[in-house]
Each structure stands twice: as C-alpha cells, then as structure tokens.
Batch of 3 targets.
Target 1
Amino acid sequence: MMHQFNASVPGKIVWRARRGILELDCLLVAFINEHYSTFTDAEKQALENLLEVTDPELYDWVVSCQDSGNYQQHTLMIERMRSAANVIDS
C-alpha cells in the first residue's frame, strides 16, 4: 500500500520525507500529514533540517530511541515524532 501525503504538504517536504526504510516512510507520512499544517515557521525549518540526515541515523533516533548525540538541534522534533507515533523510550 502506498502512503500518500496531504495535498497541503509542500513538494520539497514530500520529496525529503520519502525514505528507503518502510517504517520511517510510514511514520513520517503519518506525522507530517497530522502535524505539518500546525507547525510554526521555526518548526517547519526544524523538520526540513531533520530530513537532511541519513535513514539509519533517523531510524536510530526516532524508532530505536537512541540519543541524537551531537545533533541536539533535532531533539525537540524527534520527541514530537516519537510522541505522535507512541514510540516508547526503553
């Protein structure tokens, strides 16, 4: 099943959010569809910055709940994604 973005999500975000890891793809589509329209400009920029990281890094941070280490600027957005997806930090 193909997961689709809302028409209101800018193409640049759609393109960057598409991932090679199915779990990330599903999580990002759901998160962005649900929350992007409510983001401030700063939050939109934070999401764009987060989408620049590699699939393995993003997977580790969001799905595996690993610390983002030197990338603390991503912490708030990662926590929002985890919360929205009900990812439990073990």
Target 2
Amino acid sequence: MRVDLWNQEKVRSLGYNCQFEAGSLLETLNPVDSYLSENTSQSPIFKQIRMAGLSLLAIAAFYQVAMINAREITFPPPSGYTSQHIIPQGYREPDVTSPKFAGLATYANLPYVHCLAPEGYDVEPFDIAILGAPFDTGVTGRPGARFGPQGIRSGSWRIHPEAAWSVYTGKFKHSTRIGLTQLTCDAQIVSSRPTKSSKGTTPRMITLGGDHTTTLSALRSASSHWGPVSVIHFDSHLDTWDPEVLGMFSSGHMQALVLISRQVEESLTMRIGVNHGTFLHIAHEEGLIRNSSVHAGIRAPMVRPKGDLRNDVRCGFEIIKAREIDRYGVAGVIERLKARVSDTKVYISVDIDVLDPAFAPATGTAEVGGWSTRELLSVLDGLDGLDVVGADVVEVAPIYDNAGESTVLAAAEIVLSLIGLMVNTPVSE
C-alpha cells in the first residue's frame, strides 16, 4: 500500500518551502547566537542554554524534512487479520438517500413483500414471513411493547452484510378487540400464501411483538394450517391464568370485555379478560395447543400458587423453572424440551422477560433471576431438528432499553436463531 497524499510537484514544492522556512529560521536566530557567543562565552550556564537551543532547532528541522520524505514511503502489503479490513478497490461511501437508509424498515433489511395484498395481486412467494405485531393493549403492567417490532427490526440492522440504517415510523393504536381480530386476519392471509422453495406448501411465520396477547392470533393461524401444536413457551410467567383470576384488567386498568373471533369467517364470541397473562388458557380452551406443551424460564410469583399450578397442568403444560438451568445445565434443559414435545408440530414463543433484566431491561414485566442471553441462544440452537411451524418474540418495549440497546439486540439475535431452526428443518403438512 502506497501512502501518496500529494503529487510529486506538490511534494517538491512543499519540500522547498520547508527548507526555505527552516533556513529563514536559522538566519533569524543567527544574531541571537552571535550575541550569546560574544557576551556569555565564559559562562557554563549560558553555554548549556545555547547548546540546548541549537539542539531543539536541529530536531525541528529534521522533523520537517522527515515528514516530507515520509510521504514517499512504500509500506509492505498487509497480511493476516489486518488484510481482512482492506477497503476494496472501487469502494464508494453508501448513498444515504438510498432505500436502505430510509423508508420502510424490515428485519435484517430483508426484501419487503406485500403479503397482505388482496386476492388477484401478484405476490412474490416466500417460505418464512416476519410479521410485526405492534400491539400491547392486553398488558396488565406497563405498556410499551407496541414498539417491540420497531425495536427488534432496529436491533437486526447489523445482521445485514451492509449494516444499513433505516427508519420505521408506523404507530398503530388498536383496542384489544380490533387488534386481535386484525392480527388473526393478517396471520391467516400470510399463511395462505404459496411457498417459494420449502418442503411444505404453507409458509411459516415469525411474529415480532407486541405484547404476548398477539401469540393467540398466531396460534389460531398455525392451528388452522397445521393442527394443534405443542408450545415451547420461554417466559418468566405462566400466562395460563384463568381469565377470572387475571382477566379483569387490561392496559390502563380498565375492564376488558373483548370480542374475539376464533376464525374470521365465524361469528364473534364473547370473552372476558383476554390479555398477555391469559392467552394460553384461552388457546387451550379453543383447542389450539396440545397437552405436550412446556414452559421454560419460569420464576415469577403466582396469584394462587396451588390453583395456578393445577390450571397450568390442565392447560397441558410442564414447567422448567429458571433456576433449573443451574442444576441440569443447557444440555439438560434442551433434552427435557425435546422429550416433552417429541415429534409433534412445535410453536416457539419467546417472551423477552425470560432473560434477566441485566440482559434485557426493556420489557413491561421484568423479573430478576432470569437466564442470560447466551444461555437462551444456546437452548434455542439445541432445538435443531424440531418441526417448528411458527414462532414469535414478544414483550420488547424499547422505550425502557439502556444506552447499549441490549434488549433489542438480544431480540434480533433470538429471531435469527428461530429462522435458523426453520431453515434447517423443513416441515411438510
């Protein structure tokens, strides 16, 4: 690599100018030098001062000449690790006005497909859909998970090879009734699209939450195409509470009487208290999930310990507590999860609060004593080989994140692991 900041004429000109300036400096100092020689020739102190001044002057002149000559140095080619960071020939700075720096944001800057287009429109086929669910009116704690899809997408920008930046500005404010009805409809539309290259004919979907209530819509869609599924539920809470116990309040502590349609074509039925702590109970009642489901990372207090546990078993779940990872290790947790779901179709739901707040503070119902990001990613990677037909990452509330954005970065990496599970194991109907 040749350091050539100036052309030859400029170097010569600069060199001559520097030599001239150095010569002028010497001429300027000559009268002072003569004065010191004539008046202080017998003083040792002044002799030392005189010699020091001349030495500094010589060093300055040498430095100027060296800097001129340094521009002509030819360095050996870089090798080893350094060679990986050479700017390629023809490289240009990215255009910040290009679509990858503005406009509609997608996960990891993947191509945007109008998957909700009406029938008759030419829609490009796809195998895995990443669907945002900006919804949090089903929470019982602090809201903010509606910004989860935006945060997860923001955290995923670094996954793209070009590490582009873009802006996602959509804000959707829905009631629980409207939100869940719309999400169910959207999930059905996405799942009905043809696949591009996968083994099956039904595309699989990963939902970016949004609060955990959004999983109910995804489970309805998955069940309609794949039949009842086994749920692997990563969370600090059970989320199988009976609506009569934890169903009378939604975000804002207002009584939640919501209308939900199990299928868009069916008539609406009345439900009380659908929220992010009761959706799995309702999913069980609707026959969406199997009795081979499992929680992992549970550690939050219960409303009625004995009653909650009995109800959880009735809903078809087994519990792996957060601290059991210390006893069994990551490999032991993976073994228990696989044994529980066996060879059934699997839906993986990840509530970001399964992680300890030290790793993921940006959530509405944080619970201390959770797993580390590394532990969760290791468990997810160990689930390779399961027939994963759908997944989600929910309860990400970026407004509560730290300066390092550790929550959205973790969420983005979790989504990447879920995509890997789907890609590695195609699923057929």
Target 3
Amino acid sequence: MIVGCSTYVVRKLVDFHCHHGECPASLLARSLRTLVARVRQQNASAQSIAETMEKHSQNHRVYYPGQPGFPGHDLAKRQMQGFGGMLSIEIECGGNAATSW
C-alpha cells in the first residue's frame, strides 16, 4: 500500500493504475483494525474443531499444529502465538459415506 498526497506521488500512482480512491482505502483501514480479533477467532475455531474431530469415531487423523500429537507441535508452540485457522482431517469411510458425512 502506498499513500501519498503530493502531486508527484499521485501522478505516479495514476500512471501505474495504482489509485483506488477513498472508499477502498477506508475499507482496508477498517479491515486492518479488526484483523487481530478475526485471526484470534479463526485460531480458536480451528482448535475447537480439531479437538472435536479428534474425538469422533470415524476420524483416522486430525492434522493441526495446535494438537499435542501433531509432529511439529512443540516447534509451533515455541514459534507461534496461535496455531492458525487451517486444519486437515482424514475420515475413515468409503467414498459414498464421505460425501454424505
């Protein structure tokens, strides 16, 4: 993001088609203000889903750095403040059962 008000900066932004106006800039500023809260909620949701799915009988494996059994858990715990919002789950069932699950 480049912000400037001098005539030179504005002219260069227009030349490179990098000007977006006031509305997108205000939307970006608003989204940045709530970024920390959204990431914290994503972390909490992923952790909750991982814990719930790990207890489910049809699950073979839950891949999430926040789970103690995850191969990189200790490293992630040292390096990260949260474990992220993405996880992966292997489900033990046939193709038809997997799509209806």
